Write the structure tokens for this entry.
Amino acid sequence: MHMPRHPVFCALLAGSLCLTACSGEQKKEQRAPKPALVTVTEARLLDVPSTIDAVGTVEASATVTLVSRVSGELMEVLVREGQHVKKDDLLFVIDKRPAEIALHQVLAQLESDRAKLVKAEQDLTRSQKLTRGGFTSAAQNDEARVAAIGYRAAVKVDEAAVEQARLNLSYCEIRAPMDGRAGVIQVDPGNIVTAHTQPLLIIDETAPVDVTFSVPERYLPEVRGLASESSLRVTARTKDDTESEGELTFIGNVDSATGTVPLKARFPNTDGKMWPGEYARITLRLRLLKDAVTVPSRAVTIGPDGTFVYVVGDDMKARYRLVSTRVEHNGVSVVTGGLEAGEKVVMEGHVRLADGIDVRFPSVRTQAEDKQPATPGAAS
């Protein structure tokens, strides 16, 4: 028996089938991934200075520890801690009286021996005349000659003793051996100092100063080769971002434990802003790379297989590309392999990327579009 179909039932069934079909199409659309939003830039040819960045330590170019050359009581201290001193400035005074007495003694001995030498030479002259006349023997003449020679030697010894006594007297005044900055005074006036043993003061030469730093040993052949041709310039930046220009002065041996090479550069430091003991950021300039392929450093990523970039072609797909980089300068990396000038590389949006994924660029709305009124009925 054939049962008649109700019109309302047929309408509900058709609506259900339509909703099911539409829901299936929406799910298909949701499954299709949207292109990743990225920003790109072109690899460009630029002249880039080849540099090496490092961190160094500022050191005094020379350090002298002052000690007394004579023993005695320290009478005066004429320098302040931290004072900048000039070469030959008087810094300390040791009691001079013992040295003055010793000088007087050797001067008196010299005067006595000189008088005896005059008398011996006169006796020798008379003895020679008497010997020629046959009035004295040759033995007596020889005795007179030996006496004169002995007093001549005694006078020379006395003259040397006088020089030594005067030198010891001058040592009682301790002067600065060079320009520099005085450190901590280690002995106060009134103390007895012993010659050649007790430090009095340390002076550091701070104009110029040296900066020691290390670079990876792979740079050693290039640094040595360029340093043999001309002087290499070095820039140092201290904590207050003050820049100073210097020159590489020393290349050390490779440290096998760290795989680095110690270097040293000298800076004039005429303004005194570089201070011994502080750290400085160092840039060693090697050479200028002409027409180098460059990209912003933020476009370069380091992965398990090495350094890579994402290149976007005309098909709007991001391609994973391993590249070789050499130097980085002011936010720009030099690419030595794997990339050509003019190719587009991704700068932002790396997180969502994989090899072959579709990409899109940010849309740019003009000011005229922003000012257009909304179309009636466009808003739901």
Observations:
- The CA atoms of residues 47 and 290 lie 5 Å apart.
- Helices lie at 7-31, 97-133, 138-170, 220-229, 367-371.
- The chain has four domains: 36-48+291-360, 52-60+204-288, 68-94+173-202, 97-170.
